[in-house]
Amino acid sequence: MTSRQQLSFPRQYARTQRYTLGVPRAFTVSPDGSRVVFLRSPSGTDRANRLWVLDLDDGLRERVAAEPEALLGGAEEELSPEERARRERSREGAGGIVGYAVDGAVELAAFALSGRLFVAELRAGTARELRVPGPVIDPRPSPDGRYVAYVSGGALRVTGAGGEGDDRALAEPENEHVTYGLAEFVAAEEMGRSRGFWWAPESDRLLVARADDSPVQRWWISDPAHPDREPVKVAYPAAGTADAEVSLCLLGLDGTRTEVEWDRTRYPYLARVHWSSGGAPLLLVQARDQRTQLYLAVDTATGTTRTVHVDEDPDWLELLGGVPAWAPDGRLVRIADEGGARVLAVGDRTLTGAQLHLRGVLDVGENDVLVSASAGEEAAEAEIGEIHVYRVNELGVERVSEGPGIHSAVRSGAVTVLASARPGEPGTTVRVLRDGKPVAEVASYAEKPVLSPRLTLTESGPRRIPCAVLLPRGYREGDGPLPVLLDPYGGPHGQRVVAAHNPHLTSQWFAEQGFAVVVADGRGAPGRSPGWEKAIKERFTLTLDDQIEALHGLADRFPLDLDRVAMRGWSFGGYLAAMAVLRRPDVFHAAVAGAPMSDLRLYDTHYMERYLGLPEEAPEVYAANSLITDDGLSAPENPARPLMIIHGLADDNVVAAHTLKLSSALLAAGRPHEVLPLTGVTHMTPQEQVAENLLLLQVDFLKRALDLA
After folding, report:
1. Of 612, 600, 599, which is closest to residue 536 (Cα–Cα)?
2. Residue among 599, 607, 604 at smallest CA distance from 624
3. Global pTM?
4. Exposed e or buried b for every residue in 641-661, given b needs 16+ CB within 10 A?
5. Is the pLDDT of residue 569 over 60?
6. Which pairing describes strands 108-113 and 101-102: parallel, antiparallel, or unpaired?
7. Concatenated DSSP letters for 362-380?
8. How far is residue 89's CA from residue 682's CA, in Å, rounded to a whole number?
9. Nearest in space to 279 (alpha carbons), one of 233, 235, 238, 329
């Protein structure tokens, strides 16, 4: 690779937002199978998504249904603080139309743009603004397409989709701490629930979440680069402290209100809500320790609930996408951990076994369930890093996707949209299938990366830890061993060893700088088995043990110089990188830790308590896993290793206090280190010039730290 290409990758990677711009996403298929709706920006460097329609019955024609620049008259997009927070929780870095919702027939779409409410008639291809109080958050049409509900100023409001001017509030906050129709912090950040209201199938009422964050402690996030600005006050539920109080009510368009009843003291977490035609609203509520959860059916006349099913687990219960749901015949569809496997259950029957590891439900049809799954521990052969789409029913399991890769799907009736990312192909291929046969392909406008990974997917060590190994493309056998860079996430919900091209591009760029790069998914990482994920209960330190096992297990097969080993990572990966040089300096000689957790009591309730319990009940567990309480900081037998710590000062997830406390502890222990503060940067990895230069600075640090000329 030429020097120009090496230096151009960071810039291209930043400008394209990790090659995500221009990629079609957020697909919806109309029930009649005639239209596919999706979002896509017009180029690989344009952030502004447009709303598109693919007409399957009209020459397979793609057309724009809504264009942000035209709707805003060329004005710059303006985001409210609430919308910025929503995008931070979802890690949304694009602009324009970043989300939309549709009516039951997929003929009307609603979306917010610059805090204003717009609707698009998907058949006609026209879009218009509905004049309502703003700023608007999360607008959603009623199933019959007559109304649009949305949130503004913490109130749940509804307006006529035709712009009749009958806008009104169905519920308004009683005080500044209350919101109606929005997901509270831990629901959006940790539970995968990003919304807070759901239409009834009959379009006559809504099920609405009320969140009161007055019990939650307040933190202040300041911008030291602008001392003239007031700090931002945030409600942050750190481990062991109070969560927001969440309840549900049924709000009728006629003004009626019915409270939904369940034991919110024992089951305070509202994790999932499902309301489909032909069934009562279905709730999934969790105990605070996440070891028990109830599936509840709501009586819409009285608000009372009945228990449909109970799940219990000695460690924790994982929340997965697409479940719970009702099957058309009224049976409960759920994913359960049974017999050491993660399986699909419909009613009283388990339809999959240990050959598959369920990742989520994609669609519940009349005769089958469409699921996402990886090969289970009892699969006939290992499929390292692969995720496939399957049809499941009482007759068996049928794979829909083909070939190694990461596959996902959206389906309605006979039409399926199948998105596939493969190891040897840049980007994502999107095909539209009808009755299982390809009928169209949705184009991607993403830029082609200036490099491709030299990727080997393998397993390492006695535990068969999934690994990706990347060498410089110009490396030849006999060139000698290379300094090693471990590049993991290494923790829950963060699979990095995947059978796809683009996720390994940054690792390959580091390889081009003269490293053998190793990515390992040890215990705690998703995609293998419940036991694999839950082995880290109270023991985050096992994730470091597995990185070392993977490294040593690869050394006899790849040109790894074990005398020059570094690690880099972000978030949990940053925590892991810092722990590597602090606890195992005999193995690791340098590290770059981005946004690392250090004092685990400072992280949020739903995440940290799931793995470590309550701090007041298990202080020794938190001390054993936290970096700032590490006895190794001052142990004379542990030599100091070069450590660069990077943190965004505007981070409201892993707040900058983690890095400041870690730096103070290192300084007190006499351990040299570097701190790189990023002004105005949140927990999302930064973009544009900051992202470009950040990669270059990391390479420079690692070469200095490992004494590489």
Report:
1. 612
2. 599
3. 0.95
4. bbbbbbbbbbbbbbbbebbbb
5. yes
6. antiparallel
7. EEE-SS-EEEEEEE-TTSS
8. 11
9. 329
Please list, in sequence order, all residues whose beta carbon lies within 8 angstroms of the beta carbon of residue 181, skipping any fewer than 6 positions away: 138, 149, 150, 151, 155, 156, 171, 196, 197, 208, 209
Please, what is the end-to-end C-alpha distance for the chain in angstroms?
19
DSSP string of 445-508, one letter each residue: -PPPPS----EEEEEETTTTEEEEEE--TT--TTS--EEEEE----STT-----S-SGGGHHHH
CB 223 within 8 A of CB 650: yes
Cis check for the bond before 324: say yes or no (omega within 30 of 0).
Answer: yes
Element spanning 698, H or E:
helix 688-705
- Distance, in Å, from the CA atom of 185 to the CA atom of 604, rounded to the nearest integer, reads 9
* Distance, CA of 249 to CA of 252 (rounded, Å): 10
pLDDT, tens digit (0-9, with 9 covering 90-100), for 227-268: 999 999 999 999 999 999 999 999 999 999 999 999 999 999
| Chain centroid offset of residue 68 CA | 25
Average pLDDT taken over every residue of the chain: 94
What is the token pair recorded at 143?
């199933």
Residue 252, classified by CB atoms within 10 Å of its CB into exposed (0-12), middle (13-18) or buried (19+), is middle
For the CA atoms of 136, 139, 144, 147, what is the dihedral angle to 10 degrees? -10
What amino acid occupies position 304? Answer: T
Q: Which of 17, 171, 616, 319 is nearest to 182 (CA)?
A: 171
**What's the mean pLDDT in 357-382?**
93
688-705 helix and 505-512 helix, angle to the nearest 10 degrees? 40
69 CB contacts (<8 Å, ≥6 apart)?
48
- Phi and psi dihedrals of 196, rounded to 5? -135, 10
Go through the chain and tell me how many residues it has.
709
Question: Most distant CA pair in the chain: distance in Å?
Answer: 78
Please write the tens of the pLDDT for every residue from 333-345: 999 999 999 999 9
pLDDT value at residue 4: 45
Token digits of residue 304: 């009372």
Q: How high is the pLDDT of residue 203?
A: 97
**Structural contact between residues 574 and 595, judged by C-beta atoms closer than 8 angstroms:** yes
